[in-house]
Amino acid sequence: MSLLGSLFSRKPKEPDYPPVTDFSSVVTDIHSHLIPGIDDGVKSIEESIEMIKGFASLGYKHLVTTPHIMSDYYKNTPEIIRAGLETVRAAVKAEGIDITIDAAAEYYLDEFFLKKVQDEKVMCIGENHLLFEISYINPPDNLLGIIFEINVHKYKPLLAHPERYNFWFDKFDEYKRLKDSGALFQLNVNSLTGYYGAQSKKTAERLIDEDMVDFIGSDLHGQRHLEGLQKVVNEKYFWKLMAKGVKNAGLIR
Description:
The chain is α/β, with parallel strands linked by helices. The protein contains nine helices and nine strands. The termini are far apart.
């Protein structure tokens, strides 16, 4: 190959992204488990307050905590979640923490999920973003149909941590099909540190490269995830994602 040909065949150099030191530009975390004792998240109000103080120190101003709703395991209801939210809010106020907190839910896509959607008995992030997760073992056969149903009922389907579903690691076109069907993607930001494994990190990075990440979330359950958030600000792909932008800040009411 000639020198001229070699020059034209080189991959363009990726720009240097400016360092980002905290989450102040993100403003809102939309995925966490901060209501004590109702799922696999924090166990006590003291732990909840410790985690919320950690969010505030990282630059967050608003939290939407999202307890699990799973028909066969975490049988939470909007009433249970709202009661827990008021307990957390009271503790935040008593501690004088400069942060606001709301609640939605992280729905597991089980046999009862669509009935909740059809009955409009779901808790959304913001006005109508419906956070849901699927099995880690295999995707549901009717996933595209379910996304269609969510859209029909005027909710915005928001798939939690798509980078963690290992059955799609070698089938990236499946992510494109989901996006084309109207799904939004919420990346677990700790994936960028390799917290969930090398393949999840690689997939997260490709989703960023392909401009397929709509929102980020901490998916915080406890101290281990808070420590991950403190590390992720050193990751180049976090800086890259911040340069591209996410939609979290727009969800503040």
